[in-house]
Each structure stands twice: as structure tokens, then as C-alpha cells.
Design brief:
It contains eleven helices and eleven strands. The protein has 270 residues and is of the alpha+beta class. The protein folds into two domains: 154 residues, Regulatory protein AraC (Jelly Rolls, Sandwich), CATH 2.60.120; 104 residues, Arc Repressor Mutant, subunit A, CATH 1.10.10.60. α2 packs antiparallel against α3.
């Protein structure tokens, strides 16, 4: 399962995932990550924690975040992932877009039983309604039930202008918006008004990978979601994901996932 990309236009997504890994990214939606079994390492803004079963991460819109599967041999993680447009959150929309939690993680003992119930209902309803052109009317009320139970347990800080000016935030936002277009370190540096050498240092120090590695991981993640959820041709997916050619896409995909896109689609469908 691949987290939502702002450019896809989804208003709601729900799924369970196993050992989810995804690089630093952001989007304009609310994201709920609830650990069902095992443990997972989650980073939101600059806070990183290893979450255990029953723990919920509440990721407000436009907050940078990432997931990292634990090393092989560690406990496998199965988690519920809910991503929804703030328009579905009713009266909580202003709170979500205008603030962020000081600590976005809530352990099991702080969660009302309604939370796990509502999350499970969202997963069930999405699976039942998947493929429908209209959103189920139960999504909004169930998400709002979760928020009604968790927001009182979060210490909220108002968003400051500095949050949107943070260079890491700008990098992630720009790449998330433009990863399907031709991008280079030089063009990104020019767009953000910094030197490419400083930008390279930011990638190394804050993101743990180079610009080409980060860009490729974003493109591969988007391509993987299209391979899993659509019947579009691999050539179309490669181009739509920002790769120069089908050949370069195949090479990158095999190097990252250990199989070809067609093999992945066949196994996923089975």
C-alpha cells in the first residue's frame, strides 16, 4: 500500500499494510496510522518514534512524515492507514489545517474504544465500496468520530509562517507536486532559491539519501500504486510516474523491489 499523493486527487483512502516503508513526503490530507500488530518506526515533522500495537499516529495536513519498516528479523508490522480530505472532517477542518499536534502519537491506553471501532468500519466500508465513483456517506461521520475522541488528547500548536518556509518542507512540497515532470538538483535549487551544494547537503543530512534516490523513491511509490490499483499499461505508468523511458523504469523497479512491474502486478492480483 502506498500513501496518498496530492496529485492523484483522491478524497479518501483506507487500507491495511505490512512493513510499510515510504520516504519523507507530505500532502494536504489528514492521515491516520494505527498499528494493529508488531511495531513500526514513524516520523512526523522532526519526531521519530517506534510505535507498538494499539498506537495511533495522527498526521495533520501538510506535515512532513515517513514510515520505515524495521530491519528483517524484527517484529512484522501490520497497520491500518486512513487518508482523507479535510472536507470530510466537518467542524474539525479548521483545526486540522490551522494547527499541528506537539506530539502526534497516542498510545493504546489513551485511545477510546470508539477509535479502533471507527477505523475498522472505515476499512470495511472502503473495501466494500472500492471502485465506486461516489464516496460512501459513512466516511465523514466515522472520521469525525475518531477526531472527537483523539483531539482532546493532543496538545495543539498553531501553525506559524515559519513552518511553511522551512526548506525541508519546501523541498518535499515541490517534489510531491512536480515529481512527474523532469527534475534535476539544479532546477530544484533554482526554484527554491538556494545553491545546489546546500540542497545536496540537506538531502544527505535530513533525508538520508541523495536527490536522485529520493526522487526515484517517490516516482516508484506512485508507480507501484498504479500497478496495484489500475490496469493501465506499464509503459503509460512509467511515463506518468516521471521516468524517461520504460527501460529506465524497469531497471529502477527491479533494483528496488526485486521483480519486474508485470511480475508484481500478477502476484498482487493473485
Amino acid at each position: 500500500m502506498i500513501p496518498f499523493f496530492e496529485t492523484r486527487g483522491d478524497r479518501f483512502f483506507a487500507s491495511t499494510s505490512e512493513d510499510l516503508s515510504f520516504p519523507l513526503h507530505q500532502h494536504s490530507h489528514l492521515e491516520l496510522f494505527f498499528v494493529l500488530e508488531g511495531s513500526a518506526q514513524v516520523t512526523v515533522r522532526k519526531q521519530t518514534e517506534t510505535l507498538t500495537a494499539g498506537t495511533l499516529a495522527v498526521i495533520f495536513p501538510n506535515q512532513t512524515h515517513c514510515y520505515l519498516a524495521l530491519p528483517k528479523g524484527g517484529p512484522c508490522c501490520r497497520a491500518a492507514l486512513i487518508i482523507c480530505d479535510p472536507s470530510l472532517t466537518g467542524k474539525y477542518s479548521a483545526v486540522l489545517t490551522g494547527s499541528h499536534p506537539a506530539r502526534p502519537f497516542l498510545p493504546a491506553h489513551q485511545l477510546h474504544p470508539n477509535v479502533s471501532y471507527a477505523l475498522q468500519e472505515l476499512l470495511t466500508e472502503y473495501k466494500k465500496e472500492k471502485g465506486s465513483k461516489e464516496l460512501s456517506p459513512v466516511y465523514g461521520p466515522l472520521v469525525q468520530l475518531v477526531l472527537a475522541r483523539v483531539l482532546p488528547g493532543l496538545s495543539l500548536h498553531r501553525n506559524q509562517r515559519a513552518d511553511s518556509l522551512d526548506l525541508t518542507y519546501q523541498i518535499v512540497h515541490f517534489i510531491t507536486e512536480n515529481f512527474r515532470e523532469p527534475l534535476s538538483l539544479e532546477s530544484l535549487a533554482k526554484e527554491l532559491g538556494v545553491s545546489k551544494y546546500h540542497l545536496s547537503h540537506v538531502f544527505s543530512e535530513k533525508m538520508g539519501k541523495s536527490f536522485p534516490e529520493y526522487l526515484q523513491s517517490i516516482r516508484l511509490g506512485y508507480a507501484l500504486s498504479l500497478i496495484s490499483d489500475t490496469q493501465r499499461s506499464i509503459t503509460d505508468i512509467a511515463i506518468d510516474s516521471g521516468f524517461e523511458s520504460q527501460r529506465s523504469f524497469y531497471r529502477a523497479f527491479r533494483g528496488h523491489y526485486g521483480c519486474t512491474p508485470l511480475q508484481y502486478r500478477k502476484e498482487n492480483q493473485l
